[in-house]
Specification:
Layout (H helix, E strand, L loop, with lengths): L6 H20 L9 H15 L5 E2 L6 E2 L5 H13 L1 H28 L2 H12 L2 H7 L6 H16 L4 H15 L5 H19 L4 H29 L10 H7 L5 H8 L1 H16 L4 H18 L5 H28 L7 H29 L4 H13 L5 E3 L5 H8 L2 E2 L11 H13 L3 H10 L4 E4 L1 H7 L12 E7 L1 E6 L7
Parallel strand pairs: 3-4, 3-5
Antiparallel strand pairs: 1-2, 5-7, 6-7
Amino acid sequence: MLKKRHYPYLVAVLFIIALALRLWLAFQTPNFTIDEAYFHYRQADLIKENLVPSYLDSLSYSGRTHIFHPVYDYILAFFSFILGTALTLKIIPNILACALIIIIYLMVLELTKNRNIALFSAAASAFIPVFMAKTINSASIFSFTLPLIFYLIYCFMRIRERRFLYQFLFFSFVLSITSAIAFLFVFAMLIYMLLIKLEYKIQNRIELEVILFVTFLTLWINILIYKKAFLFHSYGLIWQNIPIQILATYFRDVDIIASVTSIGLIPLMFGIYAVSRYMFKERDKRTYLLMAFALSVAFLLWFKLITFEVGLMFLGAILVPLLGQALNLLFKYLEKTKISSYKWVFWTGLIVLLVLTSVIPSVVRASESISASVSQKEVSALSWIKDNTPEDSVILATIAEGNLISALAERKNVADNDFILIRSSSGIFEDIEQMYTAMFKTNAVELLDKYDVDYIYLSPRAMEEFGIEDLKYAEEDCFELVYDDEVKVYRSFCEIKAR
């Protein structure tokens, strides 16, 4: 029989196992999954050198202004002084992601007062397939913001305690200056207020004041950050000015099968049960808080106001503590039956089901993410570009490879995946596609001249994206193949002269 003092050690062991698995998978390759990692890689390096990130970027889109929250990059830059940038981007995001295990354990323990259920829920949080795949090798900012949001939820559950009130206010400020995902947190808190008003009629004054404070704080900070972008894009800023050609891949329709495989069967099944049970029968304000987050994410997913993968990450994580509530109800019911002495059978079945539907899919999804990382051949090609081309060269690459060009080759790109403050992002995407797939040399050269392209970076991922094996127009009188080792690099030296 486990004693109370044993559980913190078990949580620590679970944390170490999950982190060790993540790092073992992440170090299967020395490189990263494009494209977010290489944006943070470059910003962390710039902060180390200059103490400030690059807002006026001479390389992105051959020169543009960035609008982003730099807090996460400062965190990475701080650790990169000790570990180096590459090692930091491998280790620190995975440590931050594993912090969710401890937070979920504390949260479910607060909800159920059952340490076995809290430990099982913590294990489920360690293996959310979409979260693991998204954060294991991409230095994703969600490694930091998702655990941060869940710690805020935990603090809010204990808001009447002064120390948690102060922590809630402080970390709310940190979240608001870290990512625009703070709006999801605010939206969920407002949904919570509505649920409490409908069920209890009277809102706790401390909760009301704190929610209103965080709402106005988040609005004020993000208006300051994104004012120029909002004036530039209007409501289109919600969809980040993503080109219409790829918008559907970011904001997809809800897919039930994809949701089950991305979240895990047990959290999804028991989480939905807990929502329905507390919606119509049970009453618990803390569970309403979790339900508010689940409903807000589901709403944003349904109306395509949040990207599909990000929505599933947050939905999967919020269903885990709801899983704890459902298990608490289940085992309380079993205590009243004659089969209460066979609870170990249910625990065994749950553990086996968790391994089959969450742990194994997490490892598989993470392995797929690792296999999609930048290859060593690509790194070699980018190093060649850095060492053998003029510093002011413009390199044509796919949008997904734009930050890769800026970070490793240290050259100007035609475009990358930050579309904010970019005019006609759809037109640029179409032009890039034409520059790779054009049949005739004159059409290609005209577009290459338009963007002042000096070199064309043709990688296996570009070939796959555009369905080509080579540049059909690359004839020797205008193009020179200067590098060929899985990745091809062409120098463009023709131009269209006006008559």
